[in-house]
Design brief:
By secondary structure, the chain is α+β, with helices and mostly antiparallel strands. It has five helices and 18 strands. β15 and β16 form a beta hairpin.
């Protein structure tokens, strides 16, 4: 018997895999619904980008999400093949549920949620931005850089990692702050408690302009006022196969095994 009665099946492309998964759901007595608010869970057919796209809806409606990896990296969409029985096992209720952090960001009077990261970045390729950083109203520094990333533990293995930040275990109760190409060589990544409120304010510097990107999508341009970032009170729940092991995932996806 299926553990979920109604599932939203999401994928940017409908292909042979979509057809096979649809048939499996029907065989198990699971209804496929169009809207996340009508579903018990979201099943994503795609890569981590597709997972991020749907994870915001999973978070909004507080339903779990899991994915069949059709992309490259597969940190979040970790069912690797339709033939390995992992998908059917999860549908039957044999899974590991893992709550992941979500950030909430307030900018220009609007509120946004982020699964991976919030980034303040430059809009002009040849001009850095200047910004002030406070944590819990305590001033840390003012500096010029290409930008700054505030990441969840999930996002620590995404853009923040490429910018020189550390990989953080998903169960750690921390957030990461990673400067991007700072002109201050002593400016390093910072790990803080996830109860903190992060305040980032752009400062005038030549003709620079700052924008805010949430999970690699621009949400505000020419930002000039304080941006507040903190942990959202609700997590997002990812479902993994029973054999899921975070360290093994790192070894495989980052090619640490020789």
């Amino acid at each position: 018997m299926a553990a979920f009665k109604k599932i939203q099946l999401f994928g940017f492309e409908k292909n042979g895999v979509h057809t096979k998964v649809s048939a499996l759901l029907t065989k198990m007595g699971v209804s496929i619904v169009d809207k996340a608010q009508d579903a018990d869970a979201i099943l994503v057919l795609g890569g981590d980008g597709s997972m991020l796209h749907s994870a915001k809806q999973a978070h909004e409606y507080q339903i779990p999400i899991f994915g069949l990896n059709l992309g490259h990296r597969g940190f979040l969409a970790d069912i690797e093949a339709l033939e390995d029985q992992s998908l059917e096992a999860i549908l039957s209720g044999e899974y590991v549920a893992e709550d992941r952090q979500v950030l909430q960001c307030s900018v220009n009077g609007q509120n946004y949620t982020a699964i991976n990261e919030v980034m303040m970045c430059k809009t002009k390729p040849t001009r850095m931005i200047k910004y002030e950083l406070k944590i819990d109203d305590v001033f840390l520094y003012e500096q010029t850089a290409d930008g700054m990333i505030v990441c969840t533990t999930t996002g620590s293995s995404a853009y923040a990692l490429s910018a020189g930040g550390p990989i953080i275990h998903p169960k750690a109760s921390v957030l990461g702050i990673v400067p991007v190409c700072s002109n201050n060589i002593t400016s390093t990544p910072l790990i803080i408690n996830d109860s903190a409120v992060i305040q980032v304010t752009p400062r005038p510097w030549k003709d620079s302009e700052a924008e805010i990107a949430i999970d690699a999508q621009t949400v505000a341009r020419d930002v000039s006022s304080e941006v507040r970032i903190q942990l959202h009170p609700n997590a997002v729940t990812f479902l993994h196969p029973k054999a899921h092991d975070y360290y093994q995932t790192l070894k495989e996806k980052l090619c640490w095994e020789m």
